[in-house]
Design brief:
By secondary structure, the chain is mainly beta. The protein has no helices and seven strands. The protein starts with a strand and ends with a strand.
């Protein structure tokens, strides 16, 4: 899954973890992720990968994606694959 995220804040952002949950409660978490870093008012493309897991993105299924910044801020997105 690819997300385009704009930093609308006043400080740089670095992403360090993410969790993907499907509508029936299955989830995949990537901790200690070397996610992107970017400056205010910039857009970055973020690839959310589900690796080495039985959990896969299914077409027409809704997912909740939560990304965590190095400052422990949580950003949640709801998407349909």
């Amino acid at each position: 899954m690819t997300l385009n995220i704009r930093n609308s804040g006043a400080m740089n952002i670095t992403l360090v973890a993410y969790t993907v949950k499907d509508s029936v409660g299955n989830q995949y978490t990537k901790m200690n992720w070397n996610g992107p870093s970017w400056s205010p008012n910039q857009v970055v493309t973020v690839n959310i990968m589900i690796d080495r897991s039985a959990f896969t993105f299914q077409p027409k299924t809704t997912y909740s994606i939560e990304v965590t910044s190095a400052r422990n801020n949580l950003f949640t997105f709801t998407i349909t694959a």
